[in-house]
Amino acid sequence: MKNTEKLAIHGGEPIRDTYLPYGKQWIDEKDIQAVVDILKSDYLTTGPTISQFERKIAKFVDAKYAVTFANGTAALHGACFAACIQENDEVITTPLTFVASANCILYQGGKPVFADIDPNTYNISPQSVRTLITEKTKAIIPVDFTGQPADLDEIVTIAKENNLVVIEDAAHALGATYKSSRVGSISDMTMFSFHPVKHITTGEGGVITTNNEHYYEKLIQFKSHGITRNSSKLTENQGSWYYEMQFLGYNYRMTDIQAALGLSQLNRLKRFIEVRKEYVEMYNNAFQHITGITIPFQSGERNSSWHLYIIRLNLERLSVGRKDIFEAMMKENIGVNVHYIPVHFQPYYKTMGYRRGTCPNAEKLYEEIITLPLYPAMTVYDVKDVIRAVQKVFSFYTK
Ligand SMILES: *Cc1c(COP(=O)(O)O)cnc(C)c1O
């Protein structure tokens, strides 16, 4: 049965008068006060709030160490450095991710190798990883896509068998668990991002968590020009002013202003995730019987922290493609998005010789996905608006 309500794209009334973005931060008065307190203190950067934030993150994810960075991409660069990725090394990752997951390999002169995804979870396929391992492979960068952990047991096993480092891109997965472990305690190094659309924010910001002391020390030095003052590491000691730059690092430090915001946000992380889960339930209940939609699949042993809610279009049941559905949703004032354009489709990657057709599952999925708004600062009424807009648009375009 067709819904007779006229779509906004055809000149009808939109579901909402105001635009609802797909993701957004939630800053409260306590967050603001925490930042103001730092502005009035002695340390705006490299002060005590950074280590406080690092300790709290490490504790939250059950890891020994946490090293903050200016952003998640810088943190991934640090992890590739610590893993000794260098020229001619190959690193296997997924194409269904933000470009940063692969760019960090290029920063070190390495070569990204794209494995295909599992068509159910949309995460990197361990079978595909196995087929791509060569003598040059040094690391694997799985991404916990949408907040659902990748198949970490399989990936860690493959890594052990082949002497590879696992750098987990958990930008979507702060607070997720895999079997009985917390994401952040499983891989050799795990990255979280604090960009405003992620689970908690520091404006820009990122962190690597690890249980490995050697990686920890390299990361600390890397994010501060390659400089150390640690007397046990100096090659000589000319006096108490003395420091050494022992390799080429960067200034990738987070400020105390950012760390204060992060600490304050961490207090609400559990609640943030609960709200995301409540909204996911509402979406699942509303969409599971719409024939044009496949709702996200969740594996029982992985507890997602739900960064993104992605619907997959069953195109054979629809009279139009993804683009028309996308534009119709936007006209209803619902901020939809697409996560992600496969990395190997990007012009820069094309110039390096990457070609379409190498990851058929990821490439097919890309044509069929739409991300709906999901974040804790949304109200239940916002969620209901999204549901009504989806029902309106899909009832019009369902064959
Ligand atoms: C956000 C994100 C990053 C990069 O994080 P920034 O903090 O924005 O640099 C990397 N990978 C994935 C999958 C992301 O979503």
From TrEMBL:
Taxonomic source organism: Anaerobacillus alkalilacustris
GO MF annotations in UniProt: pyridoxal phosphate binding; transaminase activity
One BP term from GO: polysaccharide biosynthetic process
Active site as annotated: 198 (proton acceptor)
Family classification: Belongs to the DegT/DnrJ/EryC1 family.
Listed InterPro entries: DegT/StrS_aminotransferase, PseC, PyrdxlP-dep_Trfase, PyrdxlP-dep_Trfase_major, PyrdxlP-dep_Trfase_small
Residues bearing the modification N6-(pyridoxal phosphate)lysine: 198
Endpoints of the signal sequence: none
Coiled coil: none
Pfam families for this protein: DegT_DnrJ_EryC1 (PF01041)
CDD domains: AHBA_syn (cd00616)
UniProt keyword annotations, A-Z: Pyridoxal phosphate
Protein name: UDP-4-amino-4, 6-dideoxy-N-acetyl-beta-L-altrosamine transaminase
